[in-house]
Amino acid sequence: MAPIKVHGIAMSTATQRVLATLFEKELEFELVPVDMKAGEHKKEPFLSLNPFGQIPAFEDGDLKLFESRAITKYITHQYADKGAELVCGDTKQKAMIGVAIEVEAHQFDPSASKLGWELVVKQMFGMVTDKAVVEEHEAKLATVLDIYEKRLAQSKYLTCDCFTLADLHHLPTIQRLLATEAKKLFDSRPHVSAWIADITARPAWCKVLALQKH
């Protein structure tokens, strides 16, 4: 049995972030499905893994973690000698990767996730999309993407010419938005568009997408 367990579902963007990292590191793991409809994430034994009742939760031997970005950082450092490097360069370069990781979490993701909710999740559940909310967050996301466009004119990826966790963390929400009207925000920025084409074609990410079809 694989010592690494990911408790979550393949359709969850936060779970996907962890799965992509594990695939990039070429690690064996077990995806333990959580029945969200039955509310398994809101009761024991799941709450012993994440007291906030949110997926994913993660186990590596006796270590238990939650919060997807914290999990990806652990995987990257604990298994530094495996698979893709994901964090590269000297201390200053690693600091810049850290900045880009924070930017994804605090500048990019809030609007991207809100758009995903309005344009994808609501439609899946037959709810009505709030067009005013969509417009508000498209404008906010456009501001972030303008900054990315300038950055990506200088290097292939967000912090340097190698793929890092900073790029990987964007994948789940970007993939969700590619099937929506918000895709125009990516397409209208050539460097952003090229970056997205590159990172969404990575073999590890393709494996994450394949899991969603099971």
Automatic annotation (TrEMBL):
Query: Which UniProt keywords are listed?
Result: Cytoplasm, Detoxification, Transferase
Q: What is the name of this protein?
A: glutathione transferase
Query: Where does the source fall among the domains of life?
Result: Eukaryota
EC number(s) recorded for this UniProt protein = 2.5.1.18
Q: Where in the cell is it found?
A: Cytoplasm, Cytosol
Q: Which residues form the GST C-terminal domain?
A: 90-214
Record GO terms (molecular function): glutathione binding; glutathione transferase activity
Using the UniProt record, give the first listed, main subcellular location. Answer: cytoplasm
Domain GST N-terminal intervals: 2-83
Q: Which Gene3D superfamilies match?
A: 1.20.1050.10, Glutaredoxin
**Alphabetically, which GO biological process terms does the record hold?**
glutathione metabolic process; toxin catabolic process
Q: Which PANTHER family match?
A: GLUTATHIONE S-TRANSFERASE F6-RELATED (PTHR43900:SF47), GLUTATHIONE S-TRANSFERASE RHO (PTHR43900)
- Reaction(s) catalysed (UniProt annotation): RX + glutathione = an S-substituted glutathione + a halide anion + H(+)
| InterPro entries (UniProt xref) | Glutathione-S-Trfase_C-like, Glutathione-S-Trfase_C_sf, Glutathione_S-Trfase, Glutathione_S-Trfase_N, GST_C, GST_Phi_C, Thioredoxin-like_sf
Give the organism, scientific name: Betula luminifera
- Which family does the entry's similarity section mention? Belongs to the GST superfamily. Phi family.
**GO cellular component terms listed in the entry, alphabetical order:** cytosol
Q: What is the lineage of its organism?
A: Eukaryota, Viridiplantae, Streptophyta, Embryophyta, Tracheophyta
